[in-house]
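Dear Dr. L.,

I hope this message finds you well. Following up on our conversation about the binding site, I have prepared a predicted three-dimensional model of the protein together with IPE. For your records, I am including the exact sequence and ligand specification that went into the calculation, followed by the structure tokens. Please feel free to forward this to your student if that is useful.
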Amino acid sequence: MNIFSNKSQKLLDANKLPHHIAFIIDGNGRWAKKKGLPRTVGHSFGVKAVADTVQNCVNLGIKYMSFYAFSTENWNRPQDEVDAIFELLRDYIKQYVGDYENKNIKVMTSGDITKLPKDIYETIEEAKEKTKHCTDFVLNIALNYGGRDEIIRGINQIIKDGVKDVSKESFKTYLYTKNLPDPDLIVRTSGEFRTSNFMPYQAVYSEWAFPKTYWPDFNNKQLIKILLNFQKRDRRFGAIKKEEKK
Ligand code: IPE
Ligand code: IPE
Ligand code: MG
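The resulting structure of the complex is given below.
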């Protein structure tokens, strides 16, 4: 039986969805520029696309979603743009936290959020606290996140803990994503083909999609198209297909 309603969604196999889908939400600035608008307007429409995409992933039955909202390198942008991004983020969390609680969506973050303005840090901590018991869906927001920072932070903690022997499994517990499966699929919008410091440790076997769309225009139709393509891929993880084994 197919649980999905619209036409292309019907073609999706509910058993082959990514457990964890991640988005590098790129192209807000260019989206605005194309329309002759300030970059911050692009970010504000980008927030709307995030809210819609969360709901679309929930509707599909995906369990884990990450989105890259602010990188450790994004501090190099003009201060007024950085401030505008944080304002939008705070409004987004304030607007949706009640809804997420009702929908059993847990909010978590990756990255050092203590470096964000105090009130924003507190709003995020409150949202995490309010939704910590939620179990239907995990929304991981990567904020002041950098993959290299995450790994180095983990190593320093391991040294502090006096751990002498590290395994892949024990190292994972030192990452922000310790309670998440690795992303099966990472989508970077805007036609850029790079990872920009996003989850280098976790992404070793992720499938990637690079749609040309600027993030504020990303919608359910494109999500379904990417998922249909994902379901056609043969994820071999270095092995070979069963029928090729002699
Ligand atoms: C993504 O859009 C949002 C963040 C990085 C915070 P950009 O702001 O990078 O938009 P472009 O890439 O300049 O178009
Ligand atoms: C990646 O986008 C970071 C986020 C989406 C938060 P950027 O626009 O910052 O990346 P670069 O500069 O094009 O690599
Ligand atoms: Mg960009």
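In brief: The helical segments are 7-10, 28-34, 39-60, 79-102, 118-130, 147-160, 168-172, 220-232.

With kind regards,
A. P.
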